[in-house]
Amino acid sequence: MKDIMINVNPSDTQVCIVENGELVEFWVERKNLTRLVGNIYKGKVQNVLNGMQAAFVNIGLEKNAFLYAGDTLEYGEILKDVTDKKLNLKAGDNILCQVTKEQFGSKGARITMNVTLPGRGVVLMPQIDYVGVSRRITDEKKKQELIDFVTKVKPEGFGIILRTQSVDCSKEEIQEEISELVAKWNKIKELNMTKPAGTLIYKEEGVAIRAVRDMLRDDVDHIIIDDKRLLEDFKIAFASLNEKKPDLFVLYDDKEHMHKKYGLTKQITDLLQRKVVLANGAYLIIDRTEALTVIDVNTGKYVGEKNLEQTVFDTNCIAAKEIARQLRVRNIGGIVVIDFIDMENPEHSQKVLEVLQEALSMDRTKTSVIGMTPLGLVELTRKKTRSMLESVMLQTCPYCNGDGYVLSDEVMANKLKFYLNDVFACKDNTSVLVTLSPSVFNKIFAYRLLEKECANEWRDKRIYLRPDEHLHVEKFDVKVLHGAILDLPENAKMLF
């Protein structure tokens, strides 16, 4: 049972790919954030750095895009050998380019001159004469049949890649889609001739259309949408599919939220947690750093049934499958390092790697397992294109500013001590009211942290503490009180 569920909100659109009730892919597209991957621009080369075999191109964004020599075209072919190759470009040249990787942090978007236009069954490469086929099509006879057909019907000079979904398409549908993509390319060429540099020539489809285009195969039972207008758009865009399978597109109009109805709410919430509990009670810890993602496997509550080695092996196998799912559903890209639990048996280590690779084979995004390091860490890379889930759904903590930590209650009590020493340096200051966070307030009284100071240098001072649940744990406010009669809040408590 496989469904595509599309939830449309005023602020974003969310797409869930669900297999047998389990979330396997989750896409979010904010309406106030511009997505770049797939967009085609008329760019202007700003500068060429032959030492880096790259160029920076102005495509009308705040940051210049990055063009690597291997992503340029020469005589209608991608440069295969870029060693010591100078770019056949100079500052001021106008080029037609397509974004292949979103801009991250301080880095601009990555672009290519090899423009591609994706459809459901095929991808059109209008500048390269080539026919390719998805590696997921394993039936050699069907593969050759498709190659022979598109070679015959494709326009001369154009390239075609047959997607996995092409197996489910009729020859008429494939030919019609090629014609539609060629017409789209001709429109792009016209705009490129007339528009100024730095202009968006073609905008990639939104997340809902892309999800159906890229994920819809015969194994999808339903596409459930909670927006009537979008549903009608789908029926028009995928008319032939709607005719073959009238119950494919389903309008969700229940009052209960779609995610809650299908048990997805907790699954989505869990995607933002560091800790992932496995079915047997073991767990993963997923941490992001600037350069890579680190995943640690722990046995947790799982104690096994036979012996330690078998317990560890079973846990690592379960973890390997879940790690593959987490990479996919969280869209984790770049370098990933996995610290499996140490195994004594080399055969077990090899088996865990095989389980991991098999689970990763279900991922549409290219993933390569590099192998195991001498320290027993498994290294892999996953192609990074769109933003990771956490960058879309999370924002930097206003308290810790992304550090992930705040000062401990004991440290804050110590800071308060030094601050009060400065306040009491003025002999007229004998009474103060300190407002601080409840956790620091409780720790001071529970562990009598400032008792020594109160018995010695502060013995003739009156110090009142007041907890405030709205105050940040790293903040406190000290107010000097004057007069013999003090007007104190009800929850103020005298310090020792």
Distance between the termini: 66 Å
Question: In which range does the helix fraction lie?
Answer: 25-40%
Strand order of the largest sheet: 18-19-20-21-23-22
Q: In what range is the share of β-strand residues? A: 25-35%
User: Helical segment tally?
Assistant: 13
Number of strands: 27
Which structural class is indicated by helix and strand composition?
A: alpha+beta
Give the rounded overall mean pLDDT.
90
Quaternary structure classification: single chain
Query: Mind describing the biggest β-sheet?
Result: 6 strands, mixed
- Poorly predicted tracts of residues: none
Radius of gyration: 30 Å
Q: Estimate the global geometry from the Cα principal axes.
A: elongated
Structural summary, described in words:
The chain is an alpha+beta fold. Strand 20, helix 8 and strand 21 form a beta-alpha-beta unit. The N and C termini lie far apart (66 Å). The protein has a six-stranded mixed beta sheet, covered by helices on one side. It contains 13 helices and 27 strands. It is 29% helix and 27% strand. It is elongated.
Short synopsis of the structure:
The protein is of the alpha+beta class and 496 residues long. It has helices at 140-153, 171-194, 207-215, 228-237, 239-244, 258-261, 265-270, 308-330, 346-360, 389-393, 409-423, 438-446, 451-455, and strands at residues 2-8, 12-19, 22-30, 40-49, 54-58, 65-68, 73-74, 77-78, 94-101, 110-112, 117-118, 122-125, 131-133, 159-162, 199-202, 222-225, 249-251, 275-277, 283-288, 292-298, 334-339, 367-372, 378-382, 431-436, 462-467, 476-481, 493-494.
